[in-house]
């Protein structure tokens, strides 16, 4: 019979991972986590009533993020993943100091992946206005190597395009062309997709880049985070492997947008199927 300590540890390992975002875009991060760690249960919270965060002040984003974190802690999550780049950019230290569980964001992972594949030392970042203004990607990249150059461009229209599912064709391509112009001109050799929504436009972004003389490589910070998460779970002895079933997903939203499931499926890259979705109020 396992000791009380061992039982408590097992209960902790079996607890779900909490993931939150300003809206449904963070399901791109859930998709990457489920691919990398299929046994883990996930509780996802999308603050759909208050999206977007990317245009708001850092103070407001910190306040909203704290209320999301508190709601997830009530579900006894073992670790918090901040899927939102804007929250990761401005609120991570605050969240990490306020709540007694490990908190990881997407910026460090994305920065590491971008710096890792850069050959020429010039890295592009596409992100929300809030993330670009925070300078968080520059700081994370310079912490790895101060000689790397960073060119960050806000790409706000990618968010509504991804929400609408309008990710291919002349209009998205024209917008991508405009946003990528300064990055192509600066001859960056890797581009970090520093926003939950942008992976949905990856094909269009890569099509535009393929027309440049030396196409930059695209890095998805969601995939980079999933790889890092495995290491963090191991570090805290929180990783759980089960044989009885695959990991479950439970979704909470603060507002039920129309055609919720269609939008969610698009970001998740799969059907939400029978996974429960509930609307909740945040304090
Ligand atoms: N989730 C946000 C991010 O990754 C994008 C949407 C928003 O502006 O809230 O920065």
SSE inventory with pairings:
Elements: H1 4-14, E1 17-21, H2 27-36, E2 42-46, H3 58-73, E3 79-82, H4 85-98, E4 103-105, H5 107-117, E5 122-127, H6 129-134, H7 136-144, E6 149-154, H8 158-164, H9 170-185, E7 190-194, H10 202-210, E8 217-220, H11 221-235, E9 249-253, H12 260-268, E10 277-279
Helix pairs in contact: 2-11, 3-4, 5-7, 5-11, 9-10
Bound molecules: D-glutamic acid (DGL).
Task: Describe this protein's structure.
With 283 residues, the protein is α/β, with parallel strands linked by helices. It contains twelve helices and ten strands. Strand 1, helix 2 and strand 2 form a beta-alpha-beta unit. Helix 9 crosses helix 10. It is globular and about 65 Å long. The model has no long low-confidence stretch (mean pLDDT 94). Bound molecules: D-glutamic acid (DGL). D-glutamic acid binds next to helix 4.
Question: In angstroms, what separates the terminal alpha carbons?
Answer: 41 Å
Strand content is: 15-25%
SSE order, as H and E? HEHEHEHEHEHHEHHEHEHEHE
**Domain module count:** 2
* Biggest sheet record: 6 strands, parallel
What general outline do the C-alpha atoms trace? globular
And the CATH topology of the largest domain? Answer: Rossmann fold
The CATH architecture classification of the largest domain is: 3-Layer(aba) Sandwich
What are the distinct ligands in this entry? D-glutamic acid
Classify the secondary structure makeup into a structural class.
alpha/beta
* DSSP helix fraction: 40-55%
Cross-sheet strand order for the largest sheet: 4-3-1-2-9-10
| Total DSSP E strands | 10
Number of helices: 12
Mean pLDDT: 94
Poorly predicted regions are none
At the first level of CATH, the class of the largest domain is Alpha Beta
Indicate the radius of gyration in whole angstroms.
Answer: 19 Å
